[in-house]
Amino acid sequence: MNQIPSILTAIREKSPLVHNITNYVVMNNTANALLAIGASPVMAHAKEEVEDIVTISSALVINMGTLSKNWVEAMKLAAQKASKTKTPFVFDPVGVGASTYRTETAQEIIATYTPDVIRGNASEIMALTNSTLSTKGVDSTHNSLDAIQAAKQLSKELGNTIVISGEKDIIVTGEKVSTVSNGDALMAKITGMGCTATAMVGACIAVEGNTHLAATAAMAIMGVTGDITKNASNGPGSFQMNFLDNLHLLTSDQLSEYLILNE
Ligand SMILES: Nc1ncnc2c1ncn2[C@@H]1O[C@H](COP(=O)(O)OP(=O)(O)OP(=O)(O)O)[C@@H](O)[C@H]1O
Ligand SMILES: Cc1ncsc1CCO
Ligand SMILES: [Mg+2]
Asked: What sort of enzyme, by top EC class, is this (predicted)?
């Protein structure tokens, strides 16, 4: 618990370069959120350059939100390079289970390149272990608690950390389960808050090698910033704007004070 604020401090001190291959919907928000927390984002998806960008980056974030053939090829090249250079790698399987293409792409990336962390909502994490589960789209129709068994199974198979986001954020590494109970329901009404959470995992794994701790810190940063933001906001628009300000203003003391963590 007391290690979480020091991860925030490390992000601000080191300003790690975080390479994102992410979707058209959230690209701008994600870059701004990474800047606000103190990291340095680069968005790059051309096949011709992703390997070079991975080489100079401290973490790789792959988000398959708006996937297509060239992008998937770039994702695979980047993930392969990250495994060679031992660059920490987080994967967001956006909408897995909604189409065969999404399911096959997610399964191939996970099986071939073993992300250090996978972050998805409950429906997405469940769809990764149950190929007959079809998801509604990018929004979850399940509670994060429903996905714990799937997350444990995945984590044990892959030897990595799985994050299930939702009202409660659940971080699973093998049998170890940590829960962050901060945040606000409005966060699910702003597109790409989950993608931002995945990018925060990227910033945290860039400075902290323990993936369970880093992923917990990322969800703590999201949830505590959500708590601080909710009182000052009238709806999704102002929440989104205030959230960015509060990420920038977030202190280690606030993280310690607000965090509701069970482990
Ligand atoms: N009901 C809620 N209460 C508190 N926090 C929430 C709630 N719903 C979502 N969140 C928070 O919002 C963030 C995004 O989680 P969510 O599960 O909505 O991601 P997602 O479905 O992948 O989103 P997207 O696909 O739009 O990026 C997380 O930090 C999570 O903790
Ligand atoms: C709405 C949406 N559609 C594809 S990606 C995305 C952003 C949230 O996941
Ligand atoms: Mg998502």
From this structure: transferase
